[in-house]
Amino acid sequence: MSKTKLIAAALVCVLVVGILAIAGFTNLVNSDIKSKVYASEASHRVHTVARDNLTISPSAYDNSEGGRRLIPVDNHTFVAFYYDGSNILYKVSVNKGQTWGVPQSANTGIAGSDFARWTVAATPLHGETHIVLLYSNAVSNNTMTELHAKEGVFSPISRSIKWEDKPSTLGTVSNPSSCVGNIGGGACTAAVASTDTRGNIFAAFRWSANGTGFQYAIFESTDGGISWTTSMNATWAVAPGTRGEMSLARLSLGSMLFVYAPFDANELYYSVYHAGYWSPMNMTTGSGLHFGTVKQISSISDNRHFIYVFYVKDGNSGDLMVAKWNNMGVFKGVETVDSNLSHSLPAASLGPDGVIHVFTLANDKVYEITNTGSNWTSPLIPFGTNFRNPDELTSAEAIPAAIWREDVNPLNDLFAIRFGY
């Protein structure tokens, strides 16, 4: 093989990822590790996971709901997920993301999602970490789409996930012709997920219903993703004619908040789940969202179970805003997080110390803003300044982490997913 071909082959084998303060899964806190990480040079926090024609999220120009792609199993072990056009793959790191194992397939098949709109959730159960993928597949010659939840248990011995043989099918919907041409075909589906305070998993799917408008439904699992029940039946979205974006986040006492951001609306709409029932849709006030634009949102629940929904004010770029709810689901208003940069793809994470981190793309860099009490910091560049056209961005579950994609070789369309901490 020629030297040129060897170099090209080597370039097709890596993928990058980036995370910030590392402390463990949900209630595992290690301040020594966190302090040491923050004291290191920013460039030392960025490591390569893989490199190829891969995706992790919608692009900076598209709708986005901030789906997470990294699951911490313990203080040292992380699982990163990405999509290669044929399957959802994952890699495992046992040294805080410094090096990553070989790619392993979740055997999902070609996801019929609406441009990388699948997600991952995790919950501890009986001393094990249960990981669930939420995605969809086009079936019946691309005339129908099945909404899937695939459950697995992480094995620290094999450093892999033991997946169930077949995914749970949460629903089946018809594929409208307007969606069939999208990546993977299907019904323009999207998925978001979150656990409640009791470890139950809630998952929301959105799809185009026969080309006449968009619907969504919410499902719940109380056994780590093995079995599912319907929590909210299929419901027509507000302003259903075009795609809207969703968010799920935990409130106190097993309650949940569902947020929907319609394309043709200038406010957020939300429903509160309590004691087995979802409230009628309510509307925020003063959000400043632009009517008739794509929406990019990302939510996080803090240690008090107050919820923060970050969004870009002007479609796919603009001021970074946040809408807030208290732990009972009462809307508390909107504030500007930053108006100095034109932000895209907000992706929120929560640190073990209770600090909220929100990552965005701006000026071809990955920025971070944190909340220190009642104030938001100015945008920082925690991962250095050596970026190559970052165009996708997501965050992590239970730790402050940013995962983004860069175009490392534009001539050959090779991308790297970077993971910095």
TrEMBL record:
Annotated protein name in UniProt: Exo-alpha-sialidase
